[in-house]
Design a protein that fits this description.
By secondary structure, this protein is mainly alpha-helical. It contains 10 helices and no strands. Helix 1 packs across helix 4, helix 4 runs antiparallel to helix 5 and helix 4 runs parallel beside helix 8. The longest helix is centred in the N-terminal third of the chain and has 24 residues. The model has no long low-confidence stretch (mean pLDDT about 95).
């Protein structure tokens, strides 16, 4: 019998905490049942399976990131906004490595449409409006920002910068300076 007070939200929150402790790939319904001291079957009234649990954690992480980014962007524009936004992502990955990984989970189109993923894109586009980028250049720039943030943070979290100087925070600042310079001088493709 499930313990009183277990519900989907509590299980997803506990799954997110477990992901930060042991890694997102290690989060299963079985691992969560062990954490709560209940049978696996007792959790199936709240989550369908381990994939459903992981999707819930991904949605939680996307929402947390979007909320933090929105707070960081308030009243900022240009490079200040770009830096604040980027730092939210990097800092979140360091504080919540399992959730960071969860936020990268590929969602089905219907789930993605209802997720906070679109808020992330909208915030990036708001930052890019400060650089006066028209479409389709805005879309290209959103993809660039995502690639830079994901790439740097992924390499850093995976230990890719552990054996060389300077320290990652110094490189991060330089990367953001370079991205700002690129966005200010974005190459245009004039239709002829």
């Amino acid at each position: 019998m499930a313990r009183a007070g277990l519900n989907r939200g509590r299980l997803i929150q506990a799954g997110a905490e477990l992901a930060d402790e042991v890694g997102f790939d290690q989060v299963t319904v079985s691992a969560l049942a062990r954490r709560f001291g209940v049978t696996v079957a007792s959790l199936y009234s709240h989550v369908r399976n381990s994939h459903d649990l992981r999707v819930g954690i991904a949605l939680l992480a996307l929402g947390e990131l979007a909320d933090e980014a929105a707070d960081a962007l308030a009243g900022r524009a240009g490079k200040e906004a770009l830096t604040a936004f980027a730092n939210v992502y990097r800092d979140y990955a360091h504080r919540h490595p399992g959730r960071w990984t969860a936020a990268q989970l590929r969602l089905d189109p219907e789930t993605a449409a209802g997720s906070a993923g679109f808020r992330h894109s909208a915030m990036m586009r708001a930052i890019l409006r400060g650089y006066h980028l028209p479409e389709p250049d805005q879309t290209h720039a959103v993809r660039l920002l995502g690639s830079v943030f994901q790439g740097f943070v992924g390499l850093e979290m995976g230990g890719g910068f552990d054996h060389s100087a300077p320290a990652p925070p110094e490189s991060w600042e330089r990367v953001l300076d370079a991205v700002d310079a690129l966005l200010r001088t974005w190459p245009t493709t004039d239709a002829t």
